Amino acid sequence: MSVEPFAPPGVTWSRLSPRLVTVRRAISGVVTGVLAVGLLVAGVLVSPWFHAGAGLVLLSGAWEWWLIGRQVPAWGYAERDDDLLVLHGLLFRTLVVVPYGRMQYVDVKAGPVERRFGIATLQLHTASASTDAVIPGLPPEEAARLRDRLAGRGEARLAGL
Fold first, then answer.
1. Are residues 138 and 100 in the same domain?
2. 41-93 pLDDT tens trace
3. CATH number for 125
4. 148 and 97: one domain?
5. Is the N end or the C end of the chain the one with fewer CB atoms within 10 Å?
6. Can you give the residue range of the structural domain that contains 85?
7. Looking at the domain assignment, is residue 7 inside a domain?
8. pTM for the whole thing?
């Protein structure tokens, strides 16, 4: 009998907002564009060899564009009775199990770009840094709901000690 370590039985995964793909691609596109333009200008002013660097930057940016579209759908989270599961990664899969009783606090944050696109990031902090978990790309309402629910479950588990 084969047991898949990244697919616990009976778990229904919640996925991230597809707007996270847009945000990450926009940031990547701006950085790639600025670097490429800088290298093109250097190619005109200094040496044509900088044009090759601009080509590499554009090629790298295209690869990152494709990769972002694959990475975001690979994220998932699931609430269970005693813990929260966070799954991410394509090549190197990671499944973090955060017991509610080990949570110290829960942060919700959103930078200006995230707020513009209507997403937020939820971060769980535990007694052990290795079990901290991050869930990016949540709609703000879902991030607030999850924050309140997880904080309540964490308090209930700690009260039972």
1. yes
2. 999 999 999 999 999 999 999 999 999 999 999 999 999 888 889 999 988 99
3. 2.30.29.30
4. yes
5. N
6. 76-159
7. no
8. 0.83
